[in-house]
Amino acid sequence: MDVSAGYPYPLGATVDDSGVNFSLFSAHATKVVLCIFDPTGDVEVAQYIMSEQTRQIWHCHLDDAQAGLLYGYRVFGPYQPQLGHRFNHHKLLLDPYAKKLVGELVYHSALYGYDIKASDADLSFDTQDSAPYLPKAQVIDCGFVNDIPIAPLNISLARSIIFETHVKGFSQQHPEVNSTQQGTFAGLASQPIVDYLQNLGITCVELLPVHGFFDEPFLIEKGLNNYWGYNSIAFMAPHSAYLSAEGDIAEFRQMVSTLHRAGIELILDVVFNHTAEGNHLGPTYSFRGIDNASYYRLLPNDKRFNINDTGCGNTFNLNHPQVLMLVMDSLRYWVEVMGVDGFRFDLASCLGREAYGFDPGSGFFDAITQDPVLCKVKLIAEPWDIGPGGYQLGNYPVAFSEWNDRYRDAMRRFWRGDSGLLPEFAKRFHGSSDFFEHNGRGPAASINFITSHDGFSLHDLVSYNDRHNLANGEDNRDGHQENCSNNYGIEGESDDEAINAIRSRQKRNLLTCLLLSQGVPMLLAGDESSQTQQGNNNAYCQDNPLGWFDWQQIDWSLVNFTAQLISLRKRFPMLCHQAFIHKPEAVFDNGLAWFNRQGEVMTKSHWCEHHTRTLSVILTGNLADADVGAVAESTEALLLMINVDELPHQFTLPKLTHFRHWHCLLHTQYSEPEVDADQQVNLISRSLMLFHTEFTRSN
Q1: What would the pLDDT profile of 442-488 be if each residue is shown by its tens digit?
Q2: Among residues 81, 74, 60, 82, which one has the least CA distance to residue 29?
């Protein structure tokens, strides 16, 4: 093929009318060679020197080239680890803008830029060719966008019910999903899966990472692999293993289209804080060999070593404008080409950390906020990392919502029966205004969750006191040590009916609080069906039935209970109010008021009763969202009575002027509760009841 100068933008491989343009950023390279491979990816058939350079972007155009071409780069430059440079032209490198990877990674010493057996480690230089062991990038024509329409949904985050799940794990064992589609994007979009999500009431699926990722060498050596996928290497390529037999990346957009037709949005969990290349002793797949000093944050006084604010060996350098451009281009690609509705940013404090520390006005946050595409999608931060000042819950820009671990821990401890938690429970149930209201955000800034992929499942939370992670091969040292869990008498599964009854109630109690709290509820897939990981609270490397959704062992009574809760949340707008509620119980307005079990308004002294484990709350609101300026004609009220004590207690319904004739909507008792003539009701230990009433002006 003839080669010409080409053009610097857009970066990556771009199909045009006369061929394919290739463009790669490297500030410190001395020469860049484009390598073309045969259709198998095994034979390097041609090399083209990219002689043109525009503002540190190397580029060329291959005339008459077509989509489907397999390629990689060899980048020349100094190998000076102490200065941050790790160029090694013997290593084939993946294009950071690759939209599809073809072939499997084969773990081999040639993947390292240095001799892994040398006494001076990464200061040595390795001359083995890594091309036989590395997948190849494939040139993609994105014309499929026009063939797969995606109907917009625009569901407000405040009204969303998020369902966190794994592409492979959710459909891998479903007996009604075609075997060729199990564990793939097509499997997730199959009718049995979509029907399940719709019947449950889910409005938004949040997927664990789907960017192309590699297994860590230490896992490969143990015979394990990275199941969760938090080890990205290709920010624009769907993970190849999640594509069905055809291997067409359009399968991802088709999945989004199918979910949208079912009324379900899609959020991606994205990892831009680190890459699969690890620390200074890690392999060379892409960024390290293209321009290590630009793509990674390095120690200022010894650039041989990576800054490790992630705990994963390296930290991606979003302070560099070209690296920031890559991340922004990736995000826009997944929105505009693949059709996703938003993102959850893993270890997001890394993304907002400038040289002087975390800054909600950092370049990354400013870039997203001003972007005309990205400012319209859902943005969720995991508001912590292990770096200095890494815990930043409540300190993110107004465009972001945040995973609220304070909510998680408060709910777990409260229902476990810990003392002195009434005020903390109330703050979290109210939407955590103490964290999010200061900069004008509403309750939707709080992503509420009891469990997530990281930690115990809900079933295990009420079945295990301790982690059981031996299968991970780290002598049970990995994973959270404190889980705020309780096994209620026996560690693990039990045949004791009394213990199982308590566990069943506790699962329902926790799910009820999650779906009735102000803020945005997020369910972990399987919590609604009593899935277990056998006490493993860090199943990141368990790509097997332990980590997959078990469709043969489903607690359908709990599934139906969860669906009922979701239906109630959708029915009552005051459960997902746009602004924080600061009024007590109100007529024709949104109100929230707290009562003790005697039906009295909670006073300061009541809140300070350290050993009290009972509480009631009334939420009031309009029957429907009224137009601006409209006069509401009716109000509904919900009364939630909670007993987290080990003993039964008698509750008195609060006596309110406008709200009477309460009837029970839902409970976690053994049998239907009865309200006596004195408006009293008995709650057994560790249970709750939800009542409802309605008031209109005609009353």
Answers
A1: 999 999 999 999 999 999 999 999 999 999 999 999 999 999 999 99
A2: 74
Give, in words, the CATH class of 3-144. Answer: mainly beta
Nearest to 537 by CA among 475, 474, 481: 481
Name the token pair of 41: 């990816």
* 581-695 classified as CATH 2.60.40.1180: yes
Residues of the chain with CATH 2.60.40.10: 3-144
Backbone angles phi, psi at 216, to 5 degrees: -70, 145
3-state secondary structure of 522: strand
Query: What beta strand segments (E) does 526-631 contain?
Result: 591-595, 614-622
Full-model pTM: 0.96
For the chain, where do the domains classified as CATH 2.60.40.1180 start and end? 581-695
| Catalytic residue numbers, as ranges | 346, 382
Higher-scoring residue by pLDDT: 633, 140: 140
- Measured between alpha carbons, how far is 469 from 450 in angstroms, rounded to an integer? 20
From the list 482, 473, 480, the residue with the least C-alpha distance to 454 is 480
pLDDT tens-digit map of 194-214: 999 999 999 999 999 999 999
52/517 Cα distance (integer angstroms): 58
Three-state DSSP at 191 gives helix
